[in-house]
Structures are given as structure tokens and as C-alpha cells.
Amino acid sequence: MAAPTVRPRVIIVSCGGRKSTTEQPVPAGEMYCGSYHVALRRAADALVAQDRTARVLILSALHGFVALDQVIAPYDLRMGDEGSVTGEKLRQQAADLGVLHADVTVLGPRAYVEAARAVWLRLTDVLAGARGIGEQLAKLADIYAPARRSQTPKSAARPADGTSTGSIIEEIERRADARQNKEERRAARKRARYATYSRLVIAHADRAHSTLTFPGDVAKSAARAGAARRFANLYRVQAHGRPDDARTVDVHGTPRDVARFLSALPRAMEAAEIRASEAARLYGRWERHSTARPHLAGMPSAQRRTRARDFRAAAFPVVIDVLLDCPDTVPEATDGIPPWDQVYPLAAGIAHYYWFDPAALADPDETARILANAERRHVTPPDTPQPRVPGTA
Question: Could you tell me the residue ranges of all domains in the chain?
Fold first, then answer.
């Protein structure tokens, strides 16, 4: 009977934002000097001390998996940003390193954990469930300094001098995290008025899908759905409408691309609608100006409201046009001409002045959450069977 195959142990440590000040290439183990990365490395070293067969790899947003002694040049990139390493490259690197079927532990933020899941569906996420940097650092300290808990006096309900510096810092961090979470939830509720998305479904390591829904009346929903289909190319995904439902768009692509698009699209819709509303305010100011009187004289109130609504509706696609292909200049509005006859210069002027890059709106943390909460339907392919040796049972 053949002896069971021992799976190699690999500790994956995320790269860090703060890097060595040198502009020359240095070993990856010396590149990252931020306190968070140092804590990750200390935890990794402690895990290696428990299992001497384990090896440590750094997951770089630019380079992918790198050994501690591998020399790399400084860079400025976070996982999830445009240009970050792809799942396909990570799988190829893992195969080249001989760790494709390893027992993997990941130390790092969720975005890096999900990047590693592109290679290993089953891995150990040490920081899972940690809320904020304070809890993450505490979990890491439990690994590299487990005795710290037993050293805490149990007889005293609180320190004699009131509150320790460490507990004050932790309380500040907890409150800051709570405040940030509250603000993020409020912002998410606002964005949900423009677009919502269903749970991401990963049907294959390289294929995923989700559904975007656009609230509002039919005309407004259809306009937003059309804009979403146009924005899709910026995120390398396919977006298709449904003939029987103008409020819905189905999105397909790689898991990371779809997750980034789902994160970015509500933000893009909100920002585009704000600019269309700014154009509508120009219309409102014109109505109150003396130059509007000849054009509005004798016009029924219902018709005036219809004119205003039509202007606002026509301004939205103009804003989308400018965001996707920003011209060097836009024509100026002409005095004496009513705004309903010059929608383009008014709306394009606003979009041009307040232009933003719709391809740069994906939030790395939300992208990571979408991937972490995804429904995974694909089955891990079985290991390649070993060739049978003639004469063996």
C-alpha cells in the first residue's frame, strides 16, 4: 500500500502599502516595513516555528507570489486595483512553485484572501471575522505572543491607574471602526436608490455572474440599465438586458471583474445622476430668470413640468457620453435659446467640469466582501490520477 502523500504547508502573507524608501530593488522580505505587515510576518514566523516544513510566500498585488528572498522593485498598487495580479497568473505561479495542492494559510486583508481563493478554494483565513484593524492585530498577536493573555492580571477589574494606553488606543480604534461602518452603511443605502446587485455566483474558477436591478420608474430604470451596459467594457465584463424586464441587467465575467463592476456601478450611477441633477438645476434657474419669460408666456403649468422632466431625462445620457469619452472642450450654451433646445451644451458642460473616471470606482474592500460572500457552485477538479505501474494491484 502506497504511503499517503503529504501536502506542503504554505503561509501566504499579503504585501503592504508602506514600503522601503530605497528606489533600488530589494528582497521581498525587506520591501514592506509598515506595522501591519510586520505583525503579519511575525505571525507567519510563529506558524513556521510550529511546522518547520512550512514556507512563507508574499502575495504581491503586482508580482503575485514571491519568495522572501526574491528581489523586486518598489511599486504602488493594492489588490483589486487596475493592473493587479490576475487569478490565472496566480494559478500558474502556484503550479510553477509546486504548491498547487498545498495546505494554505493566508494572513492578510480580505482582498488578498479572495485573490488566494482563485488558486485554493479551501484555505485557512486567520483573520476571518475580525472587525477592523484592532481585532486583526489582536488575532495576530495571539499567534506570535500567545502568553500575553496569561500575563494579564485577573484579580483587578481594571488597571490601578484607570485605563492603560493600549486599551485607550483599542477603544479609539473600535469607535473609529464603528463610525466608519455606520457611514459606509449610510452611503450604501444611498447608492441602493440607483442600483442594487444580487449575490455573486461563481460557477467556475474563471466564470461568475450576477444581476443588477435599477429602481425607479420604467424610463429612468431603462436609462440606468443602458448606462450600465456601456460601463461594462471598462471592467471587462459582459452586461445584457432582458427583453421582458427593462430594470434588470445580467452581468458575466471572471469573479474578480464582476465583483469590481458590482462595486463600481452603483457609485457610477450615483455620481452620474448627481451631474444630471446639476444640469436640471440650471434649467430651474433659467425658469426664474427674466430671459425665460418670452419662452414660457402662455405655456400651461403641466407643459412646463413636462419640459423640465424631459430636459432632466435627456441630460442623463449626455452625462454618460461625456464620462465615457471626455472631449477636450464642449460648446457653450447660447443666450436667448431655451434649455430644451440646447441640452447637450448644458449637460455636457456640467459633466465635463465635474468629470470623474468611471473605470476607477471599484472599492477594494467591497470587492473583497462580494467575493467572500459569493455562492460557489463549481466543483474542485480531482487530482490527476497517477499512472498505473504494470504488475501492481
Answer: 9-152, 164-193, 196-372
